[in-house]
Amino acid sequence: MLRPLEKLGFQCETIGEPDCPALLASKGKGGVILSGHLDTVPLGEGWTHKQGDIQGTLLFGRGSCDMKGGCAAMMITAEELAHTDVPLVLAFTTDEEHKMKGAGFIAKREEVAAAPGVIVCEPTDLKLGLREKGLLQVKLTALGRSAHAAMPCEGENAVHKMISALEKLRPLASDSDDPSQSLTLSISVMQGGEKVNVIPNSCVAEIDIRAPSDRFPADILATLRALLADAGVEVHVINRLDPVVISEDSEAVMSVRKLRPGIGNIDIAYATELVKFGERNRNLLVMGPGDPKYCHRADELIDVRDVAEAAGLYTAVCRDMTG
């Protein structure tokens, strides 16, 4: 990726830490920033297609939608604008699926504050992402006392304690079928016990909570701690990101609407690096190829026609905002 960009005349710089580097590639000054992340979630199970399978215009593989499709559209845009006087900045990051350290490094750069717009190229089905949910991820730890499973009264079962604690969190979750508008709670990891005939003396659960734009993780965390006050478990925050709301008056938004009248909006149920860039530049949005429902699942896919369409729109927006 670095070498092709350098051949196109981009000045490339790797920044960050060895375990989560980020690449900043610039041509000219004052260009729109297109941002994409290179890391993916694990492959998982249940696939019916091999990695890289092609079926018509559909490409299957982990990360194809989230978000190699967006990154490919960024590269096509770079090639389209390489031999013009239109400035452009590409930001490729890592660690997006965990702590977003890569975007944190990029966000500190002056290029972000000075950019006329920042477009995070995550999959939105090429709709405008102007509202993004907040994120709260916590680890709960329950401690007990081991004993022979035939004599449970001699021990204290940490798994049972954890189950009781998790039941107390039911009031937090919403019954809505719309994940973009409701608070969702997922018990994503649970580990406890070593052997079936031993009372477990410890249990850990990791919980993922996503909240709509009118609720902040700090308030949800306070409610969670109150619900677990007498549950006998420790609460440790893994990650916390505030929700983001982008104004319709953003120049980036107005540029897209001018170029594509009637384009729809999408409320983003997942967290993106928008929250990091928003600390330095409010003229931003999320918009990219791919249907978000294919993210993080088996048989993840992207329609390559959408990638080409995204690249055309990015190119037009960059021309419009820096012309």
Structure commentary:
Helix content is 28%, strand content 28%. The chain has a six-stranded mixed β-sheet with strand order 1-2-6-3-7-15, sandwiched between helices. Strands 10-11-9-12 form a four-stranded antiparallel β-sheet. It folds into two domains: 210 residues, Zn peptidases (Aminopeptidase, 3-Layer(aba) Sandwich); 108 residues, Alpha-Beta Plaits, CATH 3.30.70.360. The chain has 323 residues and is of the alpha/beta class. A hairpin with a 2-residue loop joins β4 and β5.
Summarize the structure.
This protein is an alpha/beta fold and 323 residues long. The chain has nine helices and 16 strands.
Structural class: alpha/beta
What is the CATH top level name of the largest domain?
Alpha Beta
CATH architecture of the largest domain: 3-Layer(aba) Sandwich
How many strand elements? 16
Stretches where pLDDT is under 50 for at least 5 consecutive residues are none
Average pLDDT confidence is: 93
Helix content: 25-40%
CATH superfamily of the largest domain: Zn peptidases
Amount of beta strand: 25-35%
- Overall 3D form: elongated
